[in-house]
Fold this sequence. Notes:
The chain is α/β, with parallel strands linked by helices. It is built from 14 helices and 18 strands. Strand 8 (139-144), helix 4 and strand 9 form a beta-alpha-beta unit.
Amino acid sequence: MYLIKNVRLYTGRASYERGAVITDGGxxxxxxxxxxxxxxxxxxxxxxxxxxxxICMPGxxxxxxxxxxxxxxxxxxxxxxxxxxSCVQEMEENFTPETIYTGTxxxxxxxxxxxxxSFADMYFECADMIRAVIDSGIRANITxxxxxxxxxxxxxxxxxxxxxxxxxxRVYVGLHGEYTSDENVARAAAETARELGxxxxxxxxxxxxxxxxxxxxxxxxxxxxxxxxxxLDVPVIAAHCVHLTDADIDILVRHGVYAAHNxxxxxxxxxxxxxxxxxxARGVNVAIGTDGAASNNTLDMFREMRLAAxxxxxxxxxxxSIAAADVIKMATETGARAMGFDECGVLEAxxxxxxxxxxxxxxxxxxxxxxxxxxxxxxxxxxxxxxxNGRVLYRDGEYTTxxxxxxxxxxxxxxxxLRK
Length: 420
Ligand SMILES: [Zn+2]
């Protein structure tokens, strides 16, 4: 049991200049004003965390990532999309189960260090990724970026073996994208997700070339194509959603698709600007993701929130096109729901205790409004503590479940092995 006190509390529903949170097991039993805690816990068996006046908020939910790509950070820098892709893909051939595990664990260290408590991932060697998720204590939705029917069907065994794990692991079905699969593969993804009763994670309408190619191949845009073959009849995380027509946006609304907005990656690879304000105004669920570290190049969801807000404002030339609280909701509650972790993303009694605490001594985090401090002033390096499912996994530079020194040592040999 933890009593977190002396924090500026942002719950996702309300904020308190001096708040407190009490957790018991994996759940929150109180989140609110410190002075009006109705039943202060008996202090035996309770660990007190003094937040030192720092912000306490829901843990961030990274809705689109490729964790092991932390080992490819910086590769192909400043190249156009397709040159970058061939550079990265050549090295991806050299991944082994061991380097996938190491890469996933390094990514998890970076995510926890930056206050992220759950992430949705698409890569390969998923069993090794899930082992890293289980060993570290973080929460994740894992899929394979399938390009074949065989790849799609491999989710059946993965789901049987791993879906569940304290409610921390979800296995959805991953389809890499329209341009890397044919109609049989896409139909198999839809069918497999229906059979398993889960959702699909897919790249959609990231670049102009992808949309033009899809129209040539199928006569319609990617959202219309996926709707036609039934892929949108299950829950969907659609990464990017940059190049959308008004009719595409209607399709996303009709099927309750979760668009995972990746502002840094879309700028880094010069893909374009997703119409976030328009999507939100029309009722699309928009979450936020970092994408892989090879096209970002950080997994810092605070920076991602800031970019999402600023990009929306400048692209619409409207400073009110999005509010700080909206951006936090995208990066917490909406992201959690996209991954199938419906109870996460808000600090309220009865919900899972996934949260982070920022540095109370940081002078830039004491502005007029907590939400504004979180989105416009904070960065991942301000995080002092990250808790997932009621367990402290990161605190003041130390990891409680990960041998950080070992992982750092393995990182350099793993990087070398990818360059062979
Ligand atoms: Zn991606």
